[in-house]
Fold this protein.
Amino acid sequence: MTTLEERMPRPVAADKAPPFQDLREWLERVEGLGELVRVQQPVDRDEEMSAIAYLVAKQDPSPAVLFEQPRGFEGSPVGARLLWNVLGPSLKRTALSLEEAPDTPTLEPV
């Protein structure tokens, strides 16, 4: 049985960033790590995005890709953007997504 103290949320450490509020904030932090590529040109979602994502996945490190103007969504009232390769093989993005420091060693228990 767990105690009340064990169930209470722990305070955020002074050196730790606050939790994400939304995907835009996650994108800003990933871009700050240098692991986000923004594609500004209109791109076809059925063929071109797949080819770009395939080629990007072959890179080391393999960045996340944000397509700013996907074809077929030009009249979208919400300004649709598409994000590919969200985590990929990136340990930094995985740690960041788990709200850990991006430089957390892979074998260190949380």
